[in-house]
Amino acid sequence: MYLFDPDRGRRRRALLRDQLVSAASHLDDAFEATARDLIHRSQGLMAEVRSTLSDEEVSDEVLFNRARAKIGRLVSHPRAIKVTAEQGRVTLTGAVLEHEHEDLLQAASGIVG
């Protein structure tokens, strides 16, 4: 009866139709985003596996960038930590919160290269 009301039924049906079209559009966007995410994650996984199996040396610049990326995801104040990379060795200096210290050292030791 709600949708077939002689006074407001036409408007309600139009609103319902618009909501269904909008929901379908949102579902399509979500599907595309999920597909892109899965593709990027699989590409990242393959790159990680390739780099782990490879024995080639990386430049100090690449090592520096890898260290900065790891730090940025682990600590609350990544700008407080100075990173240097020389001859294949990464050096971290600066202040870090006590509860983040162990995780930071563990992550730094796990940097490929």
Write the layout of secondary structure elements.
Blueprint: H1 9-53, H2 60-74, E1 81-86, E2 89-94, H3 98-109
Helix pairs in contact: 2-3
Characterization of the model:
The protein is mainly alpha-helical and 113 residues long. The chain folds into two domains: 1-56; 60-109, no CATH class. It is built from three helices and two strands. The protein has helices at residues 9-53, 60-74, 98-109, and strands at residues 81-86, 89-94. The protein has a two-stranded antiparallel sheet with strand order 1-2. β1 (81-86) and β2 (89-94) form a beta hairpin. α2 packs antiparallel against α3. The longest helix is centred in the N-terminal third of the chain and has 45 residues, at 9-53. It is elongated. The model has no long low-confidence stretch (mean pLDDT 88).
Note the main attributes of this structure.
11% strand; two-stranded antiparallel ribbon; single chain; 113 residues; mainly alpha; elongated
